[in-house]
Amino acid sequence: MTERMIRGRKDTALDIVVYIIMILFAVIFLYPLVFVLSNSISASDAVLRREVWLWPVGFSLESYRLVFSHQYVLHSYLNSFLYTGLGTAYSVALTILGAYPLSRRYLPFRDFFMLLIAFTMMFSGGLIPTYLLVRDLGLLNKVWAMVLPCAVTPFNLILLRTSMQEIPAAIEESAKIDGAGDFTILVRIILPMCFASVATITLLYVMAKWNDWFNAMIYLNDHSKYSLRLL
After folding, report:
1. What mean pLDDT do residues 198-208 have?
2. Average of per-residue pLDDT values in the chain
3. How far apart are the C-alpha atoms of 87 and 147, rounded to whole Å?
4. What is the pLDDT of residues 19-52, one digit of tens each?
């Protein structure tokens, strides 16, 4: 048996082990979703008796009827999509505009600015000053109360800044020699090369905005403007 054949069999065995492990992980991660879905379309008595483990028991859509019979549930869905869309777009834009100059080594007082940003990860102004600021800006019970406050997460800013900083400076210098400005360099060179990092912070912002219930509880008092998490 040649060495190539032995190596090929080892690679095949390793691939099989990897596939088995991935399938097991997929089952582990998918089971909670299947369990929740099965409970939602099972009879209430079967759910109370804990008879549902995988497949629905006593098919019923009563739970969906009860949920969608609520007068504000559709408004809450629309509000959640609105807050998530606007908030994510605004936060990602600010994060990009903040991370790009901080990633340039020629920015004056760059280390000082990064120290201030890192400081906010450990200490904040507090709930009461933040609420008073939002109130004085006239944002209470408005859509912008869910978009403008806490727009940039320091962790996401540092993550994107680090990714941009790893791009060789020679690429930017070559673009400037060809007459490109900072905005052109950012949009046409930096962002495509940092697409994975931008996608990552976008996903993090989407999750944070969609699951945000605390700001809605503090800043909103109209049920028609509640997000789905607060309803």
Report:
1. 94
2. 87
3. 5
4. 999 999 998 999 888 888 888 888 888 888 888 8
Cα torsion 114, 115, 119, 121: sign: positive
What is d(CA 187, CA 118) in angstroms, rounded to the nearest whole number?
26
Q: Are 190 and 167 in contact (CB under 8 A)?
A: yes
Question: Would you tell me the crossing angle of helices 73-103 and 195-210 to the nearest 10 degrees?
Answer: 140
> If you search the block for the tokens 């099989």, which residue do you land on?
16
Q: With a threshold of 0.90, does the pTM exceed it?
A: no
| CA gap 196, 218 in Å, rounded | 34
**Taking Cα atoms as reference points, which of 66, 62, 67, 88 lies closest to residue 77?**
67
Residues 192 and 111: beta-carbon distance below 8 Å? no
H/E element holding 2? none
| Structure token digits, residue 198 | 């931008």
Report the C-alpha gap between 102 and 162 in whole angstroms.
9
Query: How many angstroms separate the CA atoms of 181 and 173, rounded?
Result: 11
